[in-house]
Amino acid sequence: MANLLVTGGAGFIGGNFVHYWNARHPDDLVVVLDALTYAGNRSTLGGAKAELVEGDIRDTELVEGLLRDHAIDTLVHFAAESHVDRSIVGPDAFIDTNILGTNSLLKAARTVWLAGTGVAHRFHHISTDEVFGSLGPNDPAFSETTPYAPNSPYSASKAASDHLVRAYHHTFGLDVTTSNCSNNYGPYQYPEKLIPLFLLNALHGRSLPIYGDGMNVRDWLHVEDHCRGIEACLAKGRPGETYNIGGGAELPNMEVIDTICAEVDRAFAEVDGLAARYPDAPAAKGEATSSLKSFVTDRAGHDRRYAIDETKARAELAYAPERGFEEGLRQTLRWYLDNENWWRPLAARIQ
Ligand code: NAD
Predict the structure, then answer these.
(1) Which domains does the chain show, CATH number per domain?
(2) Pocket around ligand 1: residues whose beta carbon is below 6 Å from it?
(3) What is the distance in A from the centroid of ligand 1 to the CA of 328?
(4) By the 8 A CB rule, do 119 and 283 touch?
(5) Which one of 45, 62, 78 would you pick to mutate in the ligand 1 pocket, going by the greatest count of ligand atoms within 8 A of its CB?
(6) Positions marked active-site
(7) Global pTM?
(8) Residues 6+ apart with CB under 8 A from 285
(9) pLDDT value at position 350?
(10) Mean pLDDT of 117-137
(11) Could you report the predicted ipTM of this complex, rounded to two decimals?
């Protein structure tokens, strides 16, 4: 049995992780620490067996108290400012939460876990493939030894946090692992990110804004595959090591957007009553969802291509993604259609 502290557990990936963990390890204790920023949502944890503590990861004393009071042995760190576009508008929150916040957690873990008792512990840090910078079309995919070259304030702040995690292992002996993953998608994702934004825009007949030429390439990872990857890191990852976790679906944005359009059209053909629920959708009027596509000015400093080489995770963790992109996207769309109560209040906020 393990006692977990999950930071950012009311967010997209953290929330999915809590549900995943409950299902796979029903006897474990799960405590969530989340500041409930715009991206955190109590209802994401509906039905979860977890105690939600509303608080800030930068509150080191609070974190120390949680580690002690709940005899936490495993800290899984998701909490972050996570949206690249927001980091371009205002980098400060990214420095505060992603760098200072991670340092605060590490300090607390060091104080409590390394206080002479030598208790077995694990600090697992969730990071991104964006720390490696941008690839050309023929460059080899990112491996764990690719030099860091972050290009956005978001990825720079994540890179700094990765280095701090590494340093606490090498300097103080904290048992840490880090996973660098690709773009996640799935249930409970805040509708400012590409896939839920485009799904909801398509349902409401709003334009689908495509950055630049739409040919930026990303690897897409279903969030449940990601959770399996994290579980494998916790079970088999070697202290001090980093692991790349990918979805095996390297795609240009345009292909992702075309798949979304096709899946929305398909849902309207297959699911009764959608035209009445979403009368502004082109699909409700017999038109193609792709008619909503529109090109907008590219994101500043937009990285061209990310790709993940997950040879190490396959070899050491026996990790491999299980969900194909089309299947995962279809399930995600159907989840949003079935869970309007979850997204409706959030979508109203970002229009
Ligand atoms: P998210 O924005 O959906 O959720 C972040 C959560 O952290 C929210 O619940 C928020 O309330 C909480 N939080 C923010 N600041 C906090 C603070 N100071 N104290 C406590 N809680 C705070 O993010 P996500 O998409 O779930 O991403 C989770 C992690 O995975 C992040 O570290 C992110 O960098 C990383 N990541 C995400 C992706 C992706 O595709 N979403 C890809 C690679 C890596």
Answers:
(1) 3-184+223-247+302-322 (3.40.50.720)
(2) 7-8, 10-14, 33-37, 39-40, 56-58, 78-80, 82, 97, 101, 126, 128, 158, 181, 183-184, 190
(3) 21
(4) no
(5) 78
(6) 129-130, 154
(7) 0.97
(8) none
(9) 67
(10) 92
(11) 0.99
